[in-house]
Amino acid sequence: MATPTTQVQEIITCDLCTKPTRKFCNNCQVTLCAECINKHVEKLDSLPHDIVPFKDRKVAFPECEFHTNQRCEAHCQQCDVPVCLKCIFGSHYGHKFKDMPESFNGKKKELEKETKEIESTIIPQYKKKNEETESKLSVIMAEFDEMENEREEHRKFWHQEVDTIFNTLGSLMESMRENHLAALKSHQSKINNCIPDMIQTVQQNKMIMKSRKVSDVTNYKSKVEEYRNMPTDIDIKLPSLKIDSVQGRELSLELEEYKASLTQTTLSSLTEEVSYLSLQKLLEQAKSITTIPTGVNPLYNVVCVGVDEVWVSGKDKTIRRVDIHGSVQDTFTTTCQYWPDGITVTGQGELVYSDYHNRTVNIVRHGRTEALITTPQGWHPGKLCCAKSGDILVSMFTTDFSQRKIVRYQGHTVKQEIYRLEDGEPIYKGGKYAVFVEENNNGDICTSDGNADTVVVMNKSGSVRFRYDGTPANRKKSFNPVHIVTDSMSQIIVADLNNDCLHILDQNGQFLRCVDNCGLDEPHGLTVDSEGRLWIGLYKSGEVKVIQYMK
Questions:
Q1: CATH number of 23-101: 3.40.1620.10, 3.30.160.60, 3.40.50.2300, 1.10.565.10?
Q2: Per-state percent for the chain, helix, strand, coil, to nearest 5
């Protein structure tokens, strides 16, 4: 005996409650149960109502944007917009059209298909790729931990006098670790940021599919092509640490291009060997890779984020993220009354900026500003640096510019203040020009004092190690230091605005070289990316030069 087929029909409920619908108001385009008819009419008693049985309802097409009291009865295929009869014989004359019901049904089918693809295929692919990236992060961290342990085991066999060799090797390894992890975390962030947007799109699409308003469907704009283009995987190549040891007599170390060999000899000869190896890393002539127009003029600050992108800011409230091809990838409008004094990024790639007038240092999270630090009354934040420890170094100045200092914050707490020598004299000269700040791999705090035209480098405790006044470079004009950075070899690089060049020093203040051959017209902003390339912001032109200066 055949079993009868059971058909389940979707029950359409009243728009004012959850009971099954019985009636429909053609004028208001709402469904009504028997109990809610009077409630609807009384609530909108100033409007006319046409209450009919639900099966006799009339779906109202959207009103024309350009012609009053006209309904759109067709969809222009050429312009992809709803049109009324006046449009058809007017500005859309000669175009191809589809009846509105046909267009509505077609778009609804397309919407259903795309929503299914995003939900069932694309989102799972992104989640899987996110898990693969997380696994790569764990592997890299474990590999670097293993290399670090191996380095320490061999280090125990050697005398304290050769610690400088191992410190240099450790700094290089740490820099490599940070660069690799930063690249992967940036890639992971791109993937993660897409998932919530796609989930929201799926939810919105489902609401549209349930809607009985034609305009909700016809106005839908597809995002599926954007979602199909998943961020391209990045290739991470782990470095290898090679150690060859003859206990008590000889030790050779090799990490990528860095090589060191220790034998029973004097400390002075070892130091000379390290300096020679470091110098050999520099190219005889720096090479220009590309020039990027930013449209920011004048250009004050540049800071790398990820591998091929940089945040830039100038004399307006907006901070822009530009890639190596010159395309603007993102913009953020700050809370500043005029413009941000300084910008930097955290180890997680979050943008941080200083707001002079509000006396705050702010972080950008999910497109919104959060205040991290508020400086004391009478002091204003300027240039910034995010330390490897997660601390933030803030260059501060008084309202009248008479005093300047560097303050280290751990969260909201002041951890260190650097502003006076042991004899009580100020480290920095008062004046209107900024003091730029950067932390080196060995923990040194490197600053450039624009009022004294001097680079001042201090150790972790804030004691001055050395000063550099530009004399060894033998330039024609007076030394005018602005932005300062350090690289993976702990070299210090400072932009010289007056002489259109960069000064490169080793970590002990020894002058190594000037870079002046890449068309650096008034270099101001300065940053190093994860591949060891320099990005230089040119003050007047607003261009960013990307150069290679190391082998």
A1: 3.30.160.60
A2: 25, 35, 40
